[in-house]
Amino acid sequence: MPIAYEEVDNLVRLPFKFFKRSNYAPKAPTHWHTGIEIDYLVSGEDFKVVIAGQTHHYNSGDIWAIDRSQIHAATGHKDRSYYVMGLIIDNNFLEKEYPSSKNWRIKMDHISRDTASYRQLRKNLITIAKLVDQPISDSIRFLILSEFFQMIALIDSEYTEKTAVTTPPNQSLADTVIAYIANNSSTNITAQSIAEHFRISQVTLNKELSQVTKLPLGKYLKQVRLMHARYLLLSTNYSVAYIANYCGFSSAKVLERNFKAWKKMTPSQYRKAFSKYFNE
């Protein structure tokens, strides 16, 4: 099962997809999409989200973001229920209407609830959630856009690290490479073979991909394989040797070495410790 690309369908005449999931028992496989995602956990405790290889623990009231093209997955305790809402921004719209966003690197994790910016983001999300439940007339659409643009301006001023980009990244190339890796990470592809496949130098491909994923090609490929292995460890009874082969590692020992460097425990230890959090 390759890492999934999430096709994001915007709401009618709006530049984002909005979602609300109540009584939600998360078991989201590793996936990615091109747009920035903003999430708000309305209720629930110990909601685990793995973003670009890092595990984050969220509780009721937390707001966080997932940057463009970052691979991520969500899991929760199988005996608990969660209510989460959020939106995924149309990246083409954002870069056209807010060109400086091309230089953003989102920094929104466990933001303090004692700040005016947190209260404003929460208000924006809750208001949008109420408005999208209504028929989207012209007046409702403009009210939604007002809340949305407030969020964009706030994210820009409070929750981004500006990177100096002398030449904009080739987003189309990066997305194509990311999709290729997601679909072929279980095979014996390497950074060199990927560069050869796209008939581009590895140096150039590293530069283009790292502007989007914040990782060079080889490290990104390893991260994809490790996150896929993590998902299979929690969701199946497959042996470690089988998972290693399935995820593109040359042997179980190679998976164990890389997994331990990532999670500070072996795959078997990780499965024993955390499979209880994965909903069946």
Automatic annotation (TrEMBL):
Gene3D superfamilies: Homeodomain-like, Jelly Rolls. It holds the Pfam family HTH_18. The keyword DNA-binding applies. Coiled coil: none annotated. InterPro entries: Cupin_2, Homeodomain-like_sf, HTH_AraC, HTH_AraC-typ_CS, RmlC-like_jellyroll, RmlC_Cupin_sf. It comes from the Bacteria. The keyword Isomerase does not apply. Keywords: DNA-binding, Transcription, Transcription regulation. Residues 175-273 form the HTH araC/xylS-type domain. Signal peptide: none annotated. One of its GO terms (molecular function) is sequence-specific DNA binding. This is AraC family transcriptional regulator. It comes from Lactobacillus delbrueckii.
